[in-house]
Amino acid sequence: MSPESTGQNEHYLRVFWRGFRTWRGNRPFWAGLFTMVGGLPIAYFPYANMHLGNVILAMSTTGGAGSLIIGILLITLGLTMWFHHIVRVFAGVAAILLALISIPVANIGGFLIGFLFSLLGGALSISWAPGEPKPDPVPAGAAGEKSEGTGPGMQESGPGFHSTAAVPQQPEQYDTTVEVDGGRHRAG
User: Fold this and answer.
1) Which residue has the higher pLDDT, 33 or 44?
2) What is the phi/psi pair of residue 41, to 5°?
3) Do 130 and 26 meet the contact criterion of CB atoms below 8 Å apart?
4) Are the CB atoms for 34 and 118 separated by under 8 Å?
5) CB atoms near residue 171 (< 10 Å)
């Protein structure tokens, strides 16, 4: 075995982490995570019983069923952002609307914790855009290109440069025949 063959000697956790990073980079990962984390307190707090010494504080409200539905829908939308990232805009808008609805229905949006996380997750989902793949570097002189030398407006082809001519932009000529009335509109 040669020292250059590192593929066989890689630890399985490193291979798993590299695969996870690739998976995470192809979808709105943080948007889905924030949306799911926001759905948990919205669904949990109406059914929670806190013990303060010998006193039991029950958070049960009449909106318990509504907050459970909102929380489960937010968790489902977070999973949708992960596994069906094509519908990320719909999932983001729905997460923002459910977060806003959770304020009056679910104990002020899970005591504002769930509201803020769900709102942030929805906004991240709407703003996420898939990355564009990097083009393969084309070596100079490949693919039938001819290098004619460098002149004004041309770049020298080398590593990292494509042999294309950079055409300088000419400023547009100002057309004075359009504004014969001094720039005023006909109505004024």
Assistant:
1) 33
2) -70, -30
3) yes
4) yes
5) 5
